[in-house]
Amino acid sequence: MQNKLRVLVTRVEYPQSVPWSWGSLFVKPRALYLHIPFCKAKCLYCDFDSRALGGCELDAAMDRYCTALASQIDTYGAAGELDEVETVYIGGGTPSLLGARLVSLVERVRGYCDPVEFTCEANPESFTLELAQALREAGVTRISLGVQTLDAGELKAIGRIHSAEQAMLAIAQVKAVGFSTSCDVMCGLPGQTLESFGRTLETLMTLRLDHISVYPLQLEEGTPLARLEEQGRIAVPDEDFQAACMDLAVEMLTGAGFERYEVASYAQPGQRCRHNIAYWTGKPYLGLGRSAAGMFDIPSAAEMCNLGTYPFYTSGANPSSALHEGRVRYRQLDDEGVQFDTEHLTPREAMAEDLMLACRMTDGIGIDLLKRAAALIPELELRAACEAAVRSGLATWDGRALVPSHLGWLEGNELFGLLWALAC
Ligand code: SF4
Hints:
Blueprint (H helix, E strand, L loop, with lengths): L4 E5 L21 E6 L18 H24 L8 E6 L7 H11 L6 E6 L6 H10 L3 E7 L3 H6 L6 H14 L2 E8 L6 H13 L4 E6 L7 H7 L8 H17 L3 E4 L2 E3 L6 H7 L4 E4 L4 E5 H10 L19 E6 L7 E6 L1 H12 L6 E2 H8 L4 H13 L3 E3 L3 E4 L1 H5 L1 H9 L4
Parallel strand pairs: 2-3, 2-10, 3-4, 4-5, 5-6, 6-7
Antiparallel strand pairs: 1-13, 7-9, 8-9, 11-12, 12-13, 14-16, 15-16
The structure holds iron/sulfur cluster.
């Protein structure tokens, strides 16, 4: 990537004054993500930022972490920067492991904003009816459960610590309390067959879920599962099998009234995940907690910096006079919110990113987005990329939008590559 400024910020120095301001261009975050980096045990395939600590150590670490996170929420909330938050997502890790601490965090956030969608991730082994009721009362609207599969052998093969029965019970509790209910399911698991994958989906469909996400297993380097595979001790199905599972999911879920609105996401009418859509449509979002990511356009970030609450722009990482436009993305590196990895995208790079993200969704790249893109990317290049996508069968043009095809989703990297090439 060209013109990318990558800055590792190691200390916070709130600027006393910032010599530039865009006033009315200031856009506050529309989405808020809180990251909870704790799990009861590490799944064999997991390379996410989550710690599995024992008993007292875990309790003490969760207490410390939640105190620091609550303090960050207060800092941003008191400055009015959560005023326009429309969606909140508490993910992990395993947020449900926090128990009553999770309810307190929800109440804390609710004290500063009134989101239309408030999601908490949960895992079956740490979910109870009592917790469900407390979360509902605190203002959570949606629960996303990590089910992955309902086959006992497959659960064991990937190191999940819950059983199929626990998953079914958790779903029943979530539904009984009246949440919008989403489940994550995985395909391409060791020992999985098309029949067993179909059985998991079939059972889930009988439970009248509102939303299902289907992800292929990624063998991440350095994980226990990748090592087992390297040693020849387990066999992981290949990409063709994963593609067959994804096709079966389309067939079964759309047949049951779900709409596929993103490459991995299926929703009943009116049940699309608004928070994830915010990510895919370039809305500004704030991430708090270790490993949480956020994204803003530069004028907004600069204005927030003026307010003195956005430590990812310290005086050291300040765009000074050079970077007045484009987009800033950051990832928090520590528990307390003082270290950040910050990345700057030029306006053209940000637009190429928007085009790529739009191609994750069934709506594709609409004319409005293409018109905005044409203001930053030479029209000839834009047209050539779209034509190449259609010519190679990665997308179709329906007169109103460039829509990813079945091949485009299977060969996502090719389609994304074509669009990202427009960044420079
Ligand atoms: S529950 Fe999720 S975050 Fe925790 S170890 Fe398993 S995959 Fe990783």
